[in-house]
Write a structure and sequence with these properties.
single chain, 7-stranded parallel sheet, two-stranded antiparallel ribbon, 11 helices, about 15% strand, globular
């Protein structure tokens, strides 16, 4: 299970509220007992978050920011403003995951970024969707082939929901990827690509207890909903309660 101090939330989950009222949104998250958040598109929000996060007792140990084909220096400068030590590439187009040379090229970009980031005390990572697992290279999920091309300094943030959609057994995947996995995205739903069917942890079809057990060694368990038909703050709060109760069980 995950310790309470490992629980975070991806701010993309509350993106509409964040755009309307950044301070109010962070206050609501902090009131749930959260102490960590994971921003998205960090360069866009870094200046505001640098002031707002500490005002609400929050930190951003990890973030999503464009690395592959992006401005690495800009991402690192933003991370310095928010004290963020893990910068994660959130998405590389599915068209680039069909061959081993494809994934090796993506890995090479991340490896180069990691070498630059090391001087700033920042770690570079990659976050998956479903297609990196659905696509097979030599009979294996492309994500696992990709991982073999990464330098040891580059880590993974496994989105456990999208891994399920991608057709893999998540605990087994986490076991194969081992200590390279430093963070996981935790979400629940009906296990399909329909994001509006995502729900609070424990309310969907995913085997969350098994996923949590397999994630016990990670640094961060990040609650996320890509979308939902319900109240997103209630879903996040439900996730916090679920993880807190699970950690205390």
């Amino acid at each position: 299970m995950l310790d309470n101090d490992k629980i975070s939330v991806q701010l993309y989950t509350v993106r509409e509220a964040l755009a309307a009222d950044l301070d109010g949104t962070l206050a609501r998250l902090a009131a749930m007992g959260l102490r960590k958040v994971e921003p998205f598109g960090l360069p866009q929000f870094a200046d505001a978050l640098a002031t707002a996060l500490p005002a609400h007792g929050l930190t951003a140990p990890s973030t999503h920011a464009r690395i592959v084909g992006g401005d690495v220096d800009e991402a690192l400068a933003a991370a310095a403003k928010t004290g963020t030590a893990l910068v994660i590439e959130p998405h590389v187009d599915r068209s680039r995951w069909t061959t081993e040379s494809d994934v090796a090229a993506i890995a090479a970009e991340l490896n180069a970024a990691a070498a630059k980031a090391a001087d700033a005390g920042v770690t570079i990572g990659y976050h998956n969707h479903e297609f990196e697992l659905q696509t097979k290279i030599g009979g294996r999920p492309a994500l696992e082939v990709f991982a073999e091309h990464l330098d040891a300094a580059v880590v993974l943030e496994v989105d456990t929901y999208w891994a399920v959609v991608g057709g893999v057994d998540v605990p087994e995947l986490l076991g194969r990827l081992g200590s390279r996995v430093k963070a996981v995205h935790l979400k629940d739903g009906d296990g399909t690509r329909e994001t509006k069917n995502q729900v609070a942890l424990g309310q969907g079809v995913l085997d969350i207890p098994a996923i949590l057990a397999a994630s016990s060694g990670v640094d961060l368990g990040v609650i996320e909903l890509d979308d939902t038909t319900g109240d997103v703050f209630e879903a996040v709060a439900g996730g916090v309660r679920y993880l807190t109760e699970a950690a205390g069980a």
